[in-house]
Amino acid sequence: MQKATRKPGLGRDFNRFWLGSLASNLGDGMMVIALPLVAAFLTNDPLLVSGLIAARFLPFLLFGLAAGVIVDRVDRVRLMIGTNLIRAVVLVALAGFIATGQATIWVLYAVMFTVMTCEVFYDLAGRALMPALAPAGTIDRANGRVEGGRTVTQDFAGGPLAGFLFVVFAFLPIAVNAGAYALGALVLLGLPLAVRRAPGHDDSGQDSAAKRPSPLADLREGFGFVFRGSSLGTILLFNLALNAAFTALSAVMVLLAQNHFGVPAALYGVFLGSSAVGALLGATTVGLLVARLGRFRLEVVFFTVTGLCFIGFGLAPNAYAAVAAWVLLGFVITASNIVMLGAIQLIVPGRQLGRVMSFVQVSGAAFGPIAALSAGFLGRVELYYVPLASGVLVLVSLALAVPALRRVVTEADRVEAAQIAAQVEPSAQAEPSEEAEQAEPSGQAEQAEPSEK
């Protein structure tokens, strides 16, 4: 009975994957700080510096759907290793340009675009791998471990480390960043072949090139699953609204912090980064929260609190109350997103997971520019109207999405229960068989005696 109640470990393969992710996340955290610092070192033009943001998010819109098709067709681990190595090589070249004084803002654009294109493929492949790596009943805990590691390495370690190294030599954070990506690639080399490829309907993982449908047909199949074969279409629309709310708030955050809450410029980074504390808490406790509340109740409660946190942030009387709302927002949105990610990974067939996750990824970025511009216009009227509008958008969208949310998490619960039962049955059958083996010799002996007579 003690064995039945003990939480299963995440396993050696997951731990290897997690270590590779930690190294890559450290590189991500360093890059998003180091490249803007280098850009500001090269030019004082705000428009040219802000162009890095466009170069950072453009690959998600350009290649997101195509990446999903590719992830479902190739060795996912090999794809992650290859993209990390490409990122390392590109950053080594950039470090050389900076060290020799040959770097330009246009080189930075090209590097940012290339590195983030690799990020699109890396992230999708990693999320598609998770169901094969996490033992039955641990998907939420596994995703929480990955997200918690990302928060620590990217938000707490990568950014400050990049800033410190930049003060020493401008090229140094870029070179260390390249090393982090290379290390992440090397760690992933040990993952077994069994988890690398997207399984087919028969879970054989073998696709005949002659029978393989076209990439466009693959894309249509994924689209059909999301919008006709499941309730995920509504969930994606809710995800779109949720990301639009965050983008809108982010677009005017610096003005809210400084003009509305009176945060000094020197403390803006601390103010903005405080949500990472809540995010880390949500990532590390999500498994326990799901066990206590259940998926559906947690999602409804936490997404509701998300909307209320936006509103509370806008109505906060001072910076301290705003930080409290911001930390709580980081906690509830991280936990609820991890649970939703796990539910999608459970209900989507493995051979389609890359494509479905690409729809999730693209839907999150699709209306970002529109949301940012809308926030700018609304902020001209009154800055605190932006978080208020974001909160109302989240709450209204959630009310419309609750039925679909119930269907998705109920199906995820059913799939997970079936996986756990399938894992328990062989061990339950093994115990009687051992007893039978012990009893078999005496029984055979008793039957043998009459036959000899």
UniProtKB/TrEMBL annotation:
Entry membrane topology: Multi-pass membrane protein
CDD domains listed in its UniProt record: MFS_MefA_like (cd06173)
UniProt keyword Transit peptide, yes or no: no
Domain Major facilitator superfamily (MFS) profile: 217-453
Gene Ontology, cellular component aspect: plasma membrane
Principal location class: membrane
Entry annotated with the keyword Transmembrane: yes
Subcellular location field: Cell membrane
Region ranges (Disordered): 423-453
Gene Ontology molecular functions: transmembrane transporter activity
Swiss-Prot/TrEMBL keywords: Cell membrane, Membrane, Transmembrane, Transmembrane helix, Transport
Xref: InterPro entries: MFS_dom, MFS_trans_sf, TM_effector
Name this protein carries in UniProt: MFS family permease
Originating organism: Nocardiopsis metallicus
